[in-house]
DNA sequence: CTAGAACCTGACATTGACGTCAGAGGCAAG
DNA sequence: CTTGCCTCTGACGTCAATGTCAGGTTCTAG
């Protein structure tokens, strides 16, 4: 499929796909005229990359982790595997921090509900 | 206390404190020579603001919510209260999304562990 | 009194994942 | 063949919280 269809199906902009390629996160075949063509699997790939971005990983970090996706055989993915564990831990910490923030908001909401009920 | 002490005690940079003031998130008394002075409560204030930043709220949004902190009486904090509920929901969605990302990472980790064990 | 922190304002720099625009070529349908 | 949509490269714009630097004032300890 061409870039427009991939963008739509994966729910990202065409600009983003070109950016992913520039960062080495996504490959494409080029037609004679230079247009990018992608296989079906590219959709899942892009969705997964988006998911990692959502988790706060940078392009560079995603690039480091991708060997675990593309070729999870022991030798090639050693550093990638370690990196993945690190990022998993970082994400876990981040989630815990957000939960604390949510709790703080809940406290404040309850406090305000109290005031609003009595007035 | 002066700005340096507040920065250290709240765990932020002096630059950030000046920025918060610029955004209306933090007030200060000025000495005759123009130096900022803060009461004890400023520490908690700054920590709380940091917490909201961590939750993904922008300066402008934090500003909108602060009436619920400063004066949780019904009349003044109406819009602020609504805004707080909205942000609470947004944060909750974000957390759920991050949990999905963590699950995806966990799956990938398990998959790779499998490969690494057999080889 | 003096050296060295700490503070002031103002302004430009940074970072990263994009948005957006320009100028040009490619492709399917009528 | 042409109209209109898709794609290409390249480059500059964005946003937000903060870093950083310059040039100058103020406070504090000795």
UniProtKB/TrEMBL annotation, chains A, B:
InterPro entries linked: DNA-bd_dom_put_sf (IPR009061), MerR-type_HTH_dom (IPR000551), MerR_fam (IPR047057)
Signal peptide: none
Residues in HTH merR-type domain copies: 1-68
Gene3D superfamilies: 1.10.1660.10
Keyword vocabulary terms for this entry: DNA-binding
UniProt-listed SMART domains: HTH_MERR
Name this polypeptide is given: MerR family transcriptional regulator
């Amino acid at each position: 499929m061409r870039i427009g269809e991939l963008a739509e199906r994966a729910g990202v902009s065409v600009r983003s796909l070109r950016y992913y390629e520039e960062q080495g996160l996504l490959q494409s075949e080029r037609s004679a005229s230079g247009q990018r063509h992608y296989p079906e699997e590219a959709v899942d790939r892009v969705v997964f990359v988006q998911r990692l971005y959502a988790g706060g990983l940078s392009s560079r970090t995603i690039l480091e982790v991708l060997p675990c996706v593309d070729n999870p055989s022991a030798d090639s993915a050693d550093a990638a595997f370690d990196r993945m564990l690190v990022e998993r831990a970082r994400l876990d910490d981040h989630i815990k921090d957000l939960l604390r923030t949510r709790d703080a908001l809940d406290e404040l909401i309850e406090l305000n509900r109290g005031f609003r009920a009595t007035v």
